[in-house]
């Protein structure tokens, strides 16, 4: 297999020609350019990444890689970067790391030529900003006197593949701990034991059913969590990145363990496999929210994951307060487009669609390009964040990064960090059954008559929800910290940086 460090050539003319060679057709660079350009604007279908990765693997197998670099260095860098997740699937994470290191070397050596050949290379994918953390190339500081033992599990073996999308908190918390200064390999000195399982990812990508997950967790607790019984699971931490606890039998096996969860009222079903459009009618009959499953003295709500690519695009496209032309926005699905919403108490989404055509409101379904959506919410003062299948909504965190004030339409939502963040100072919560038109009229009055209040609510506290933030030493508004509680907003969504009462109780 490739050793990235030995194939770079001396810098010479021609590295941006991209004309093709005897072994590499110019068409390869044409496709690489088109996909790279599209990646700057929107998410591209998976098959395009497969095509670029296959081209890279072919270059490596044929021995054409050195010549390809000499002809089109940044084209090779683009192929290598797109090959990283597919390399993990085929060859494992260590080989994927080799390809990413090659990309970094090419970028360092030839990155200044990014537009020298008449084409501006993008040199990133939607996932790539997280690769240094995931691959252990950026050591993390805990900044707390804690020792965490991290288990190895079979369902947490593909961090790159699982690192995109709103459920990727299960990857980033794991990888942060794995590569942080608080990790210990000595269980005798551990304060806590973290159990990584990429449940949402393997259920989606590997088609695991609820029964498969239940059996996996049972075997895990009984046979692999060596130190679980020492404290009866009280010092073991599990993370749930979706609206369910993906271990249906959790109450029989891990009732006293610590939970990090995006949902404070998880959905429980008599058959969890009802989560599909094909069985949508069964959802209402067999699924309900569990209001007692989440225990506030030991469990903690964490934000959903928003990838750095999206965060940066939204921050780039957001308009200043004075230039925002829309009172409020919502572009998303309702029960007319997704049948399962009909059975999940999400009629508020349909109510929002009734505001279509109202002056100053941008209401409708999804944009074809994600950056069009980012641009639109960056022009809005308020953005509706209605209930989804669960009470939590990743839209809540997305709109914050666009500088849009979230209007939370989810009656029983659990909000992250509500023990120290003043949510009413930067968001608005409204009863679901009164979404229109009373809410619309209220927002119109705020924009017309309370301009300073609306301006003050914008762009506050969002670093607390950014899994990629490294603004250490900043306070809630991004300014230098003046008190210890506001310190270290960076990666604050990770429990190690939170004033969690349970953590203080067990470690002091």
Question: What can you tell me about this protein's structure?
Answer:
The structure is a single chain. This protein is α/β, with parallel strands linked by helices and 508 residues long. The chain folds into 3 domains: 4-125, no CATH class; 131-301, no CATH class; 308-460, Glycogen Phosphorylase B (Rossmann fold). Helix content is 36%, strand content 9%. Residues 472-508 have low confidence and may be disordered.
Concise overview:
With 508 residues, the chain is an alpha/beta fold. The protein has 17 helices and twelve strands. The N and C termini lie far apart (49 Å).
List keywords for this structure.
508 residues, alpha/beta, Rossmann fold, 3 domains, five-stranded parallel β-sheet, 36% helix, disordered C terminus
Number of discrete domains: 3
pLDDT averaged residue by residue: 86
Largest sheet: 5 strands, parallel
Our measurement of the CA-to-CA distance between the termini, rounded to an integer number of angstroms, reads: 49 Å
């Amino acid at each position: 297999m490739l050793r990235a460090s030995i194939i770079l050539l001396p810098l010479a003319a021609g590295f941006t020609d991209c004309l093709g060679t005897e072994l590499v057709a110019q068409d390869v660079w044409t496709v690489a350019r088109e996909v790279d350009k599209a990646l700057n604007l929107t998410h591209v279908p998976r098959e395009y990444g497969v095509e670029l990765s296959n081209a890279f693997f072919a270059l490596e197998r044929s021995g054409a890689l050195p010549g390809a670099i000499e002809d089109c260095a940044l084209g090779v860098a683009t192929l290598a970067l797109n090959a990283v997740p597919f390399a993990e699937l085929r060859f494992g994470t260590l080989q994927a790391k080799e390809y990413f290191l090659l990309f970094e070397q090419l970028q360092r050596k030839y990155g200044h030529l990014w537009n020298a050949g008449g084409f501006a290379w993008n040199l990133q994918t939607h996932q790539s900003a997280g690769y240094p953390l995931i691959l252990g190339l950026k050591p993390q500081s805990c900044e707390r006197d804690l020792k965490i033992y991290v288990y190895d599990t079979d369902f947490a073996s593909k961090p790159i593949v699982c690192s995109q999308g709103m459920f990727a908190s299960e990857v980033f918390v794991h990888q942060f701990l794995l590569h942080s200064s608080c990790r210990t390999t000595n269980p005798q000195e551990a304060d806590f034991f973290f159990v990584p399982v990429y449940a949402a990812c393997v259920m989606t990508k590997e088609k695991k059913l609820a029964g498969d997950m239940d059996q996996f967790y049972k075997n895990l607790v009984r046979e692999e969590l060596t130190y679980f019984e020492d404290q009866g699971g009280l010092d073991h931490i599990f993370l749930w990145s979706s609206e369910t606890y993906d271990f249906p039998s959790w109450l029989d096996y891990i009732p006293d363990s610590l939970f990090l969860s995006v949902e404070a009222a998880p959905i429980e079903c008599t058959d969890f496999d009802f989560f599909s459009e094909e069985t949508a009618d069964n959802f209402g009959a067999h699924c309900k929210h569990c209001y007692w499953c989440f225990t506030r003295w030991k469990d903690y709500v964490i934000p959903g994951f928003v990838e750095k690519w999206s965060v940066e695009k939204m921050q780039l496209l957001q308009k200043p307060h004075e230039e925002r032309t829309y009172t409020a926005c919502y572009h998303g699905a309702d029960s007319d487009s997704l049948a399962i919403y009909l059975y999940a108490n999400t009629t508020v989404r349909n109510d929002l669609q009734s505001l279509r055509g109202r002056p100053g409101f941008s209401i409708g379904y999804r944009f074809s390009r994600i950056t069009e959506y980012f641009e639109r919410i960056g022009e809005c003062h308020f953005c509706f964040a209605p209930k989804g299948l669960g009470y939590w909504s990743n839209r809540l965190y997305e709109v914050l990064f666009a500088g849009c004030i979230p209007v939370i339409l989810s009656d029983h939502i659990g909000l992250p960090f509500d023990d120290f963040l003043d949510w009413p100072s930067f968001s608005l919560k409204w009863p679901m059954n009164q979404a229109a038109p009373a809410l619309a009229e209220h927002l119109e009055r705020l924009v017309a008559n309370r301009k300073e209040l609306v301006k003050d609510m914008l762009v506050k506290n969002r670093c607390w929800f950014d899994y990629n933030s490294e603004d250490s030493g900043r306070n809630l508004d991004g300014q230098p910290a003046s008190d210890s509680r506001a310190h270290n907003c960076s990666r604050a969504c990770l429990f190690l940086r939170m004033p969690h009462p349970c953590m203080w109780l067990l470690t002091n």
